[in-house]
Specification:
flat, alpha+beta, 17 strands, four-stranded mixed sheet, 255 residues
């Protein structure tokens, strides 16, 4: 017991020595209440030692990584001097120069935010489309709207369910207006098919519709593999090329 107490009273108890003590030397002459107290005391020392070790590592850390939200009017890029301190730690404050970069989610500016660091874009789409800028829905054409933007690159997406999605990147320059004119019909062609007696129409192995059809298929310009299937006839296949604003017509008799 005397040896155990001397070990516990040291600043840095060697737990391996305690573990190596003979069980009889620890328990000899110790009743159950005192033994429980000893166990609690020993556990407290272990927890305290771990806590001190964790605190020491954190306090001695030379690099702290954190994030902060900095609000800037008009969401413009700028150079700012920031005072960095660590709360509750006696440490000299440090000044550093940070570059504030606008968040693309907030890159669309109100009308009264126009200045020498902003630009604008005017978008016109035929026949119509819902306009997205940097992932945010802005408006639906055909109305012409001038959008004020932070200078730099932006992604414009045009969505019309009857046409392929159009995406483009524009570079907005300070104090300049960029114009985007898009005719969705220039990005598609048409496929008109008449089949006797009837067939399921597949484009690049993807089912589209079954004849007879009331209107031609709308397809983005490009090369396609056309397949016509009827379980009572042999499949019909053909390679077709869709060109802007042109209609390909086919009158097929299955055999």
């Amino acid at each position: 017991i005397t040896k155990l107490e001397s070990l516990l009273n040291t600043n840095k108890p060697n737990l391996s020595l305690i573990a190596n003590l003979p069980k009889q030397s620890i328990l000899r002459g110790v009743n159950k209440p005192k033994f429980k107290t000893l166990i609690i005391y020993l556990a407290s020392i272990i927890v305290f030692t771990i806590a001190i070790s964790v605190w020491y590592k954190i306090s001695k850390s030379s690099k702290v990584v954190t994030t902060a939200q900095i609000e800037k009017p008009n969401f413009l890029s700028s150079q700012e001097t920031v005072l960095i301190t660590k709360p509750n730690i006696n440490q000299t404050a440090k000044e550093t120069m940070l570059t504030i970069i606008p968040d693309k989610k907030n890159s669309i500016l109100p009308q009264n935010s126009i200045n020498n660091e902003t630009g604008s874009v005017k978008i016109s789409v035929l026949p119509w489309a819902t306009v997205f800028i940097d992932g945010k829905e802005i408006f639906t054409t055909p109305k012409d709207t001038i959008i004020n933007l932070v200078s730099g690159t932006h992604i414009i997406k045009l969505i019309n369910p009857n046409f392929p999605i159009i995406e483009s990147i524009i570079n907005i320059k300070p104090a300049q207006q960029h114009t985007v004119l898009v005719d969705l019909n220039e990005h598609i062609g048409y496929l008109q098919i008449i089949v006797h007696p009837w067939a399921d129409i597949y484009i690049n192995d993807e089912y589209k519709t079954t004849t007879p059809t009331s209107s031609p298929l709308i397809l983005p310009i490009g090369k396609y593999e056309l397949t016509l299937k009827n379980p009572y006839f042999s499949p019909y296949t053909e390679t077709i090329f869709i060109k802007p604003k042109q209609t390909i017509e086919r009158n097929i008799i299955l055999k």
